[in-house]
Write a structure and sequence with these properties.
The chain is mainly alpha-helical. The chain has seven helices and eight strands. The strands form three sheets. A three-stranded antiparallel β-sheet has the order 1-5-6. Strands 3-2-4 form a three-stranded antiparallel β-sheet. A two-stranded antiparallel ribbon has the order 7-8. The structure holds zinc ion (4 copies).
C-alpha cells in the first residue's frame, strides 16, 4: 500500500453529479462554477472563488462595484463552506470508469485509495519508469517490477526518509529556539539505514546483468545517503570542537 509516491496537492476540478440543481447562491459569478475557497468581499458581502477575485484587475466588486482592498477579503461563512463540501461529485479517474460518487469533502479521501488513480511506481527514483492506475501499479509491484523483491526495503526507506525529515525540522526549530551557538546537546539519534543483504545484491536468483546493475545502484544510493549523513555529523562535531577550543584558549594578543 505505501509503496507509492504521493502526488502534490492539485487544485480540484470537480465534476458534479447534478450541476443544474446546485443552489445558485453557491455559484461564483466570475467563473460560473461552484465556489472553490470562497472569499467574501467586505461591505457588500458578495462571494467569489479566491483565485477568481484575486484576478480582478481593479478593486471594485465585480457584482456591485463596491470598492474593496484584496487584503480585506475574508473566507466565506462556514455555512457556505459546509454546503460546498456537501455537493455531490463523481470521481473522474479512469476517464469516468471509476464508479465512485460522493461529496466534495469525501473525494480527497476516496482518491487516496481509488484503484483508478494514476500513480508512478514507488521505485521510480531508482529507475523504474512504470506508471499506471493504482491497481496496475499494485499488480506491477507484485509481478513484474524489477525491484519487486526489495519492496519491503522501499517501504522502510520511505518511512525512514519521512522520519528523518521530521527530525531535521525538529532539530532546526530547537536550534532556532535555543540560540544558534549553544547547541551543546548532541543527542543525534542514530539513523539506521536498512542495508540490503549482500545475497540480494549478487544472489543466485538474480538473472540479467541489467537487474544486477539496478540493484547495485539502489544499494549505492542507500550507501551515499548514509555516508552523507555521517560526513555532515563529523563536520558538525569538528566545528563544535573548534569553537570549544577557541573559547577555552582565546588567541593570545601580541
Ligand atoms: Zn470563481
Ligand atoms: Zn459586491
Ligand atoms: Zn475513483
Ligand atoms: Zn516498478
Amino acid at each position: 500500500m505505501s509503496t507509492t509516491t504521493e502526488e502534490p496537492e492539485e487544485k480540484e476540478d470537480y465534476t458534479y453529479v447534478n450541476k443544474d440543481a446546485i443552489d445558485k447562491d453557491l455559484i461564483c459569478s466570475i467563473c460560473r462554477e461552484p465556489f472553490l475557497e470562497p472569499m467574501t468581499v467586505p461591505n457588500c458581502e458578495h462571494i467569489f472563488c479566491k483565485d477568481c477575485v484575486n484576478r480582478v484587475p481593479n478593486n471594485n466588486c465585480p457584482t456591485c462595484r463596491t470598492v474593496f482592498s484584496k487584503a480585506q477579503l475574508k473566507p466565506a461563512h462556514r455555512f457556505i463552506i459546509k454546503q460546498l463540501e456537501n455537493l455531490q461529485v463523481c470521481c473522474t479517474n479512469g476517464n469516468g470508469t471509476c464508479p465512485w460518487k460522493g461529496t466534495r469533502e469525501q473525494l480527497a479521501v476516496h482518491k487516496k485509495d481509488c484503484t483508478f488513480e494514476k500513480i508512478a511506481c514507488g521505485f521510480g527514483r531508482f529507475g523504474c519508469p512504470f506508471s499506471g492506475t493504482r491497481g496496475e501499479v499494485e499488480k506491477h509491484l507484485a509481478e513484474t517490477c524489477k525491484f519487486k523483491d526489495l519492496r519491503m526495503f522501499l517501504d522502510s526507506y520511505i518511512a525512514l526518509e519521512k522520519k528523518v525529515q521530521v527530525l531535521e525540522k525538529k532539530v532546526e526549530s530547537l536550534q532556532k529556539n535555543s540560540g544558534s551557538s549553544s547547541s551543546n546537546s548532541s543527542s543525534s539519534s542514530p539513523v539506521v539505514i536498512p542495508f540490503l543483504p549482500s545475497s540480494l545484491i549478487r544472489g543466485p536468483s538474480r538473472s540479467t546483468p541489467e537487474e544486477e546493475e539496478q540493484l547495485r545502484q539502489l544499494h549505492a544510493a542507500a550507501m551515499r545517503y548514509s555516508n552523507e549523513r555521517a560526513e555532515k555529523e563529523k563536520k558538525e562535531k569538528e566545528e563544535k570542537d573548534k569553537k570549544a577550543k577557541e573559547t577555552a584558549n582565546p588567541p593570545a594578543n601580541p
